[in-house]
Design a protein that fits this description.
Number of strands of chain B: 8
Number of domains of chain B: 3
Mean pLDDT of chain B: 88
Bound molecules: iron/sulfur cluster
Shape of chain B: elongated
Strand content of chain A: 5-15%
Number of helices of chain B: 9
Distance between the termini of chain A: 47 Å
Number of domains of chain A: 2
Structural class of chain A: alpha/beta
Structural class of chain B: alpha/beta
Low-confidence stretches of chain A: 417-448
Largest sheet of chain A: 6 strands, parallel
Strand content of chain B: 15-25%
Strand order of the largest sheet of chain A: 3-4-5-6-7-8
Oligomer: heterodimer
Chain lengths: 448, 271
């Protein structure tokens, strides 16, 4: 089989893994041999036709697999063309793509062949070829194979920048149903092991400068969204717990794209729940950068995201008692909770207000987008001039442009009453219809 | 602070030259209405003041910036000098005039018009430099790497360190077609060459092969159920596509790719 065919098969079979970041580690080449460096904020080298970032050569070593996870294209029982790269081929492709600035490095995962240990050894061979023979200083993300010997995972972790174990399904029940060869513990065990290794390593490095670094860019995981009945709230709480307990750097969400007709799973042709995935990324962002708790975003009574509003707007509308906030005085944390004000804007406001009292034109100059923020702020005690506060007016501004268009076409605006339920926030507004999913999805990690 | 005067300063286009304009404006206690690089004959209506570049004067201003204003201002002004706006020189002069009067505090005066305009220009420039780190594509010609870019700002000084560190043991060239300048890195030494012309040679068979492998990976990684051209365009504006391998056409590609792609072959951008 020629390289073109292999790359097509093993690139396609890796594409459902959502993670493609190259962030978390800063490494200069300096005067060393070899090639490459890493930049802590990561670099996206391209964007595919679906708008997702391409940062790494994301491939499987092989898509042959002994396991039969129902949600996975590579499952044993699926009839698809199979291929396998040799470690040499992987190293050669990585280096040649890297030299041309196509990529930041390699993301190597694999189906399980022979045994988890054997598979892990093969990954180690490819990665160590890159590190030791080619002296490759670029980014490497490797998948820890569940069930592999911890000692092998240690060896992989010393060679890679980031390691991930995909939890894939958000509950034991779902795992039992769809991944008969896996269990929660077979996933959480290596995850916990890696967390401990990273912690231990940080001590070693302080003690002995030359101690090899273990996965310096940390650990990440992924969950599939929409393959199982798990709710948004369950998923978000699990993410929060994993950020806490396992100190994960990132949790990725991947909208389930049906891979053939199967019992227990959405039928072929079902559209991937992109809006839901998008809301999860927004909420995840709120957890990591905006100081929100999962329980503030969703709770037992509200287990699903509001499809019309992003989670931050939704929170703000349900907490009128917190607004309006005074731009010239509000603490940074509170500025961050204003719809339309992101981390950058909040930082600029805090800097600029040390020098002068800010008014609305000043905010515009700082690049703060007032379309949404207007309804939630005061400048020196004053509302923006000419601001007319009506229910539909606010809703219009808070929803994304495409949601507004969709609603208008369906003539749904009049029926949409939000504030009527202000004192009785039991449920979200009755939905005239769901907005078209594709349109609402901007980008996965877009700030709100 | 100083009064505006109906005069245009004319300097040689070098950074030192611009610092001399700043020097001159302090001596004359005035702010010109414009600054131009190189002789401009059409400007007959306004008085034109030729400002010769004097290394000593330039050094005096250059040293005063980090001391009297702030080290960060020095960095900012150097980046601002790479931006492409017509009024960038005047903006830098006004910024420095203000900086010398208020000191380091100027960095935080985000709501001030001059400061704001300068920061916006800088932001545009650093964003473009970042995009270059993302989207530059090299081709290999017998071991020598070459890339062509068409940035609006003179980004080469801003990306030089990144690429010379990353490709420290390669020989390579990045050619800026807009400004006719290049970063040339050879035998572990970097140099920025100006007023040059470079044309990309035809690719050899091996180079073609890796280009095609990259394209086939690029197509394979897209999920067609999630097709979203608008998002792609936001993240990767069309004006960069022209020099990107994944969007280039060639003979080899036509022969090789019998496979269906999901609208990934765009037409070339017009500008
Ligand atoms: S073990 Fe991994 S590759 Fe194999 S079927 Fe399960 S998810 Fe797919």
């Amino acid at each position: 089989m020629d390289m073109f065919e292999k790359l097509k098969i093993l690139g396609e079979s890796a594409k459902y893994d959502a993670s493609c970041t190259s962030s978390g580690v800063d490494r200069r080449g300096g005067t060393s041999d070899g090639i490459g460096s890493a930049s802590s904020c990561g670099i996206c080298h391209s964007f595919s036709a679906d708008g997702r970032c391409i940062s790494l050569l994301k491939i499987l070593m092989t898509n042959y697999c002994l396991f039969d996870c129902k949600y996975c294209v590579n499952r044993r029982s699926n009839d698809v063309p199979r291929a396998r790269f040799t470690p040499d081929e992987i190293a050669d492709l990585t280096i040649n793509f890297y030299r041309r600035n196509y990529i930041e490095g390699l993301f190597l995962s694999s189906g399980i062949i022979q045994s988890p240990d054997y598979t892990c050894e093969q990954l180690i061979e490819a990665v160590s070829l890159l590190r030791n023979k080619y002296k490759f200083y670029g980014y490497i993300h490797a998948k820890a194979i569940p069930g592999a010997d911890p000692e092998l995972i240690n060896r992989l972790g010393v060679l890679a920048d980031r390691i991930s174990v995909n939890i894939e399904l958000p509950s034991q029940k779902s795992l039992n149903a769809l991944a008969p060869d896996k269990s929660k513990s077979s996933i959480l065990l290596p995850m916990g092991h890696i967390t401990n290794r990273i912690k231990q390593n940080s001590y070693e490095i302080v003690k002995y400068k030359s101690a090899p670094k273990f996965a310096p860019a940390g650990q990440s995981t992924q969950m599939i969204i929409g393959a199982t009945p798990d709710t948004d709230f369950q998923i978000l709480r699990l993410s929060e717990a994993m950020y806490g307990k396992y100190s994960l750097k990132r949790v990725f969400y991947s909208a389930y794209v049906p891979v053939g007709d199967q019992k227990l799973l959405p039928p072929a042709g079902t559209k991937p729940p992109l809006l839901r995935e998008h809301r999860l990324y927004q909420a995840d962002w709120l957890l990591r950068f905006y100081g929100f708790k999962a329980e503030e975003i969703l709770d037992e009574q509200h287990q699903e995201f509001n499809p019309l509003l992003d989670p931050k707007c939704n929170w703000a509308l349900h907490h009128p008692e917190c607004f309006p906030v005074e731009i010239n005085r509000a603490p940074y944390e509170m500025l961050l909770r204003v719809p339309g004000i992101g981390v950058k804007s909040a930082q600029k406001i805090v800097t600029a207000r040390r020098q002068t009292k800010l008014d609305y034109p000043d905010l515009r100059k700082l690049g703060v987008v007032l379309k949404r923020a207007n309804y939630f702020i005061l400048c020196s005690g004053k509302r923006a001039e000419g601001l007319i506060v009506t229910e539909t007016g606010i809703m219009r501004q808070l929803m994304s442009a495409s949601t507004v268009k969709e609603l208008e076409q369906k003539g749904g605006f009049e029926q949409l009453s939000f504030f009527a339920q202000e004192n009785n926030v039991d449920k979200f507004p009755a939905l005239p219809s769901l907005p078209s999913v594709e349109d609402t999805v901007k980008c996965l990690t877009g700030e709100m | 602070m100083f009064n505006g005067r109906d005069v245009v300063y004319c300097y040689d286009g070098s950074f030192d030259g611009l610092l001399c304009c700043v020097f001159e404006s302090f001596v004359r206690r005035e702010t010109p209405i414009g600054i131009t690089a190189g002789a401009q004959e059409q400007l007959t209506l306004t008085e034109v003041l030729d400002v010769p570049t004097d290394p000593e004067k330039a050094a005096r201003v250059g040293l005063a910036i980090p001391k009297k204003i702030s080290p960060r201002t020095e960095e900012l002004v150097k980046i601002a000098f790479l931006t492409f706006g017509e009024d960038k020189d005047l903006l830098i002069l006004k910024y420095l005039q203000k900086g010398f009067s208020v000191g380091g505090r100027i960095e935080d005066m985000l709501a001030d018009d001059t400061v704001n305009a300068l920061y916006r220009a800088i932001q545009h420039c650093t964003t473009e430099a970042q995009r270059m780190k993302q989207f530059i594509r090299f081709s290999d010609f017998d071991g020598y790497l070459a890339a062509v870019i068409e940035p609006k700002n003179k980004v080469i000084p801003l990306i030089a360190d990144h690429f010379t560190d990353r490709y420290r043991n390669e020989n390579f060239l990045i050619y800026d077609e807009t400004h006719r300048m290049a970063l040339v890195y050879h035998s572990n030494r970097a140099e920025i060459a100006e007023n040059i012309y470079f044309e990309m040679p035809d690719a050899g068979a091996e180079e073609e092969r890796y280009r095609e492998l990259w394209k086939s990976f690029y197509d394979a990684i897209a999920i067609k159920e999630r097709y979203n051209p608008r998002c792609r365009m936001n993240m990767m504006p069309k004006r960069y596509w022209k020099h990107m391998t994944e969007f280039s056409e060639n003979e080899f590609a036509k022969k090789k790719s019998g496979t269906e792609t999901i609208g990934v072959k765009p037409s070339l951008p017009r500008n």
